[in-house]
Amino acid sequence: MCRLCDSNQGHQITHRIFDFNLLLNIMNKNLGLVWIREDFRTLRNFALSHASKNHKSIVAFYIYKSKKFKDKEAQKWWVYNSIKNFKDDLKKYNINFQIVSSESYKNFFDELVKRRNISLYWNKIYEPDYLKFDDYLRDKLTDSGNEFKIFKGNILNEFHEIKKNDDTPFKVFTPYWRSAEKFYSEKVPIKVNKLNNSKEFLSFFKEINFKDILPKSGWHIKFEDQWVPNEQEGLKKLKVFFNKKLSKYSVDRNIPSLLGTSKLSPYIKHGQLHVETIWEESLKLKDNKRYLQKFIAEIGWREFSHSLINYFPHMLKGNYSKKFDKFPWQKNLKFLSAWRKGLTGYPIVDAGMRELYATGWMHNRVRMIVGSFLTKNLLLHWKLGEEWFFDTLVDADVGSNSAGWQWISGCGADASPYFRIFNPILQGQKFDPKGEYVKKYIPELQNVTSKFIHNPWEMSEESQVNCGCTIGKDYPNPIVDLRETRIRALSAFKTIS
Known about the structure:
This protein is mainly alpha-helical. It has 20 helices and 5 strands. It has helices at about 10-15, 45-55, 75-90, 105-115, 130-145, 175-185, 230-245, 250, 265-270, 275-285, 290-310, 335-340, 345-360, 365-375, 380-390, 400-410, 425-430, 435-440, 460-465, 480-495; strands spanning about 30-35, 55-65, 95-100, 120-125, 145-150.
């Protein structure tokens, strides 16, 4: 019989998970354990603040699942840096943040719950699988008599709080957000407790070297010039945006050459910044308050996406609109590769794809353009785009990514009509007329004039020589004809309409 496990079975696993020397601290009700997932923050981290208020000592921990980050290299880079920075942040409160490894949350917590008198706290993640596991762990902890509490996650309203009058979920954004915004505005605000210092800096788990999380490939190194994944940077960006960019946001957000958007999305996704903090800061505005509507609506779309994936979880694996199950998508690896690499021959599309690979982010207007091009001009399945975004975006959120791709493809809830096909030439001419964005990411086109920057194949041979860019050699010819692919896309849609 193992004196630590109270069992002859499974104790080898327990020995690997827990620190022998300090395991008995779990017997002490003065110790609170906080499971960190997508909440690398001290402000409005409800689980962490509750533990610090009710326990003399705290140990926070993160469970690293390598399979969770399979084909999510950009997010792996963000999480690695978030862990490193959050460790430093929590040390200021004398809280140890430990990194453990397990490929199964169930196995990990089944072992943990065998201990006596644990006190465990965590914040929700609003994805069906995570919420389902919350139910499992709640039952496990209840049956074992252990103390626990689950807290609201990074959202304004719990998704089940916002329904139509007939108690069914909203399927259209505008009435959803009108109801959700009103509901949140009329709520009694959650009391935000300060994070208290831990009495002792304790180790509880045997942790892995968190450097093992760092992606093995080197392409992410370029991200270091773009991002600082910590809470302080997220709060700083929020203040800069409200003070300097908000008044021009409704216009500048569509101009990819300008820093007209907030670029807060990865900080929200990984929990460095809580959306309630954004809301609270918006209430403090005076001069710029009238410009808020467009920006706050972006939070609304995120909330709407979380509602959709929980009420209609089938959309995480396939089409929200079932009729698209019969849509005649094409299979063309050559086209897919050209799209991923930014070599389609359409400058605004290629600039967007290259920005994505270079920075882990893409301008919102351009996301719609590249999405439309993939699904309607190339007729490739939206899941291929979603998968690539998951691998390369630092802000890829399950709800927003799935809903966004289905919106642009025409198969989602409240989706853009399928016949709305973005013309990349016209989009480029309208939103990047001088080609400043294009030239930043496509140096081959650096000397092309504004007249031809979005249709360089129309330049004469003499003009190509003069600007040092031979189309078909230095920069590709268009891989498809826009007019022909538009006709083909509309014809494909008719087969299911």
